[in-house]
Task: structure prediction
Amino acid sequence: MFDVAISQLTAPRLDLERELATATAAGFDAISLWRPKLSDLGLGAVASALACAGVRVSSLQWAGGFTAGDGRSFAESVDDAVEAIDAARLLAAPVLVVHSGCRGGHTRAHATRLVRDALDTLAPVARQAGVTLALRPIHAAVAPGCSLLTGLADAIDLVEQVGDAAVGLAVDLWQFADAADTVDLLPRLAELAAVVQVADRLGPPSPDTDRLPAGRGALPLELLIAAFIRHGYRGDFELDPVGEMVESLGHDAVLRESARTAEAWLGHATACQTADTCLSPPRGHHRRGAAAGMGSRRSQASSHTVSRG
Result:
């Protein structure tokens, strides 16, 4: 496989041992971890299971909510993110996905300043731990009011303002593959992306739209993946289908199909890059590497529910 991972969000109720066995049988050697499962199992048990299975961690999800919109203070959110960075370091996860949080009753300028202050505070901690903070925008149609950053351009601008190699982007193609500005932003996205998340869909993004397995929808995912590679992106592509189709087909079958699809797409993209014969998408990195155990305080992530966004 070429830098492809599967996300735990694909089967949040499956136990880790079964997840790892299914993933390796399908051909995956990397997994994106979800913090509630760490809270349930403990870091030591997770690290041991990963080592036994020979599976690396592509990213850890997630920390953030720095605007106090979820009832926690700014300081509590930053402390939780430090805890998550420590967990990422111990699990050799190169990326910690970070969410901004909503406006939380603030003006947009003040809420943005809170997120910037949090990233400025956390970047040195992440850099010392060897972890990249990947700021993840959330499309306004997917989770209304849950994120200050609802577009790729705003997220890019904020990361560039921070200007630290330990802060990058998490780009979710399910949300933004067909956004009006995605193709124009590709060079900057490939430069700043620490991880690219991949799922397909039919119709516009919404809370009720399934995250389909790659190739089962209408998004130009293969072209975009090839474009990311062509622009220099060398991080993981994380596959994370969620919804009724995954349940209908079965987790094992979805992973096998996803692995075949990703291998074909990435193999074609790499061959085209070498031969310089790739078709470009219409009009159009190396991973930004920069990670002490989790404390006894219950992680914010242990109460997060899985959503399609």
Q: What stands out?
A: The chain is about 45% helix and 15% strand.
